[in-house]
Design goal:
It is a single chain. This protein has one domain. About 55% of the residues lie in helices and about 0% in strands. The protein contains 17 helices and no strands. Helix 1 crosses helix 13, helix 2 crosses helix 10 and helix 6 packs antiparallel against helix 8. The longest helix is centred in the first third of the chain and has 29 residues. The N terminus and C terminus are likely disordered. It holds the Pfam family Acyl_transf_3. This is Acyltransferase family protein. GO terms for molecular function: acyltransferase activity.
């Protein structure tokens, strides 16, 4: 997620509710229960929070990692799985998406509007803070963190297609392989990343709750330790995975200085390796309610807002002091990044920025004629409760694992 060069166990944890059934996971962020009284599944909120912490830590490592081989290796390992983890969860919670008007409205208010606002804000921020008045504002060329919103919008719109085809995952892998050998795709809508990360989203669409239970067993948690140690060893420069260009999924093979056929090969290899590390990450995510569980509902806030602090540090030279390039400095930067993103996911920050991240915008849409019938299908619930369950962009906010 960068524009450079996120008692345990399966026996005691209930199955996560399935979107489209009578159980809802789209309650008010941080409340721990939905408007209908059904509780959120803590596993997914925990996974989102821990992943967003790794995203922020990875971003803050980037300016200082070149002075530490261990930091370079850790950076590569983190980048191998934090985006796949977010995208798989996003795909899993997109299984019930269709072209119903109310869901399209949430897609617009929860993804399109934040994309337009933050794409513009980041560009203006660079003009002012970096003294770069020539930096262009382009909604067709996502800059920095906004690429994920653009990608999620495209993936969600294509969800009905993936639900209709017979073999969605092999098809998505084929598209990603072709994209990795197509430098002419260009930068519009960051389509390289959209297409190369597509298999993870489609995989999430294909997953069922029991698949998450398979990786949360005690045996998997134990086996994940040597897996992560081996990954660090491979990523240790000049190890096999010393370079991180492939992990960004931003460029074709030719743009990375490799022959065209290396793109499809590396797409398959990385898909297997990244999926293995993602499974190991999920194995260590707690399934019970933790002190940080409520923060998992605010990951979109932490994701989009921490970039301003990160960019300000780069523009103003905050990472240049030599003390930050030693072991103690790396620890300090790591702690700062974790604390910062934790604060940005908190309820007070959500309340301040909700008008941008989750605008209601009833004025912009026609009334859905089928909505009263759906409301009657929910039973005679109090009007206030029904309004809370259908708040604009709430479902999208929870599905965005940014």
């Amino acid at each position: 997620m960068t524009d450079s060069p996120r008692p345990n166990g399966h026996h005691g944890t209930p199955l996560p509710p399935s979107p489209g059934t009578g159980t809802s996971t789209t309650d008010t962020p941080g409340s721990g229960a939905s408007g209908s009284g059904k509780r959120r599944d803590a596993f997914f909120d925990n996974a989102k929070y821990l992943a967003i912490v790794l995203v922020a830590v990875g971003h803050f490592w980037e300016p200082i990692k070149d002075d530490s081989q261990f930091l370079q290796a850790a950076y590569a390992v983190v980048y191998a799985f934090h985006m796949p983890a977010f995208i798989i969860i996003s795909g899993f919670f997109s299984r019930s998406f269709d072209m119903r008007p109310d869901r399209l409205r949430r897609l617009i208010t929860g993804i399109v509007v934040p994309y337009i606002v933050f794409e513009t804000a980041y560009s203006l921020f660079k003009r002012v803070v970096d003294s770069d008045p020539q930096h262009e504002i382009s909604l067709l060329d996502p800059w920095y963190l906004t690429w994920f919103l653009c990608a999620l919008f495209i993936w969600r719109l294509t969800t009905p297609i993936w639900k209709a085809v017979r073999h969605p995952l092999p098809l998505a892998l084929g598209i990603a392989m072709l994209a990795s050998a197509s430098p002419q795709i260009g930068n519009d809508l960051d389509l390289q990343r959209v297409l190369q990360f597509l298999p993870y989203f489609v995989l999430g669409l294909c997953m069922r709750p029991e698949h998450f239970h398979l990786v949360r067993r005690r045996s998997v948690r134990i086996l994940s330790v040597p897996v992560f140690v081996s990954a660090l060893a491979l990523a240790w420069p000049p190890g096999v995975l010393g370079g991180t260009g492939w992990l960004y999924h931003r460029d074709s093979a030719q743009e990375l200085g490799a022959p065209w056929w290396a793109g499809p090969v590396m797409t398959l290899v990385l898909f297997g390796c990244c999926l293995l590390l993602t499974a190991c990450f999920f194995a260590w995510v707690p399934g019970r309610h933790m002190w940080f569980t409520a923060l998992g509902a605010g990951t979109l806030y932490g994701y989009l807002l921490h970039g301003f602090v990160m960019r300000a540090g780069e523009y103003r030279g905050w990472f240049e002091p030599s003390v930050l390039h030693g072991p103690a400095g790396a620890v300090a930067v790591t702690v700062f990044a974790a604390v910062l993103v934790t604060f940005l996911c908190s309820r007070p920050v959500q309340r301040v920025f909700r008008f941008v991240m989750e605008p209601r915008m009833e004025w912009a849409f026609k009334r859905d004629a089928a909505e009263p019938a759906r409301g009657r299908g929910q039973g005679e619930k109090p009007a206030k409760q029904r309004a809370g369950e259908t708040r604009e962009a709430r479902e999208t906010q929870e599905q965005v694992s940014a």
